[in-house]
User: What shape does this take?
Amino acid sequence: MAESNWYVVHTYSGYENKVKANIEKTIENRKLQDQILEVVVPMQDVVEVKNGSKKQVQKKLFPGYVLINMVMNDDTWYVVRNTRGVTGFVGPGSKPVHLTETEMRPLGIKPDSEVVVDFEVGDSVTVTAGAWQETVGVIKTINPGKQSVTITVDMFGRETPVELSFTEVKKL
Assistant: This one.
């Protein structure tokens, strides 16, 4: 598999979350999980003072931009470039330029380090933290880029998918 890098995509202002949702839906529909690994709208916590009261809110770090960790090829370029709300990749001309590790560090996004997990698709696991603690489920997908697994749990007689980080599950 080719190497994935982080790219910056320019969007219409205010459409960042919509673009993220549209790209994630396209990834799912076209089965591109192994090529487009992560879509991020960088946020920061800011304290706002309104009418004399302080309130902590999240603001977009780069309004009008979305970061995408992907393997650049014709298919992925086409999918991202033709997503509603995307005006183009950041880079000279039509050639996207990926971000370097040095540029990514201040954003708090760490480069992928190879994570070795002791479970695989189809294994039964128990949830060790969070709202689903002590719940048993079966792994449906493993996403090394996001360091997460999607398990199905039985909720009201139906199988429900739940996405959890690697640290929140333990193999039975």
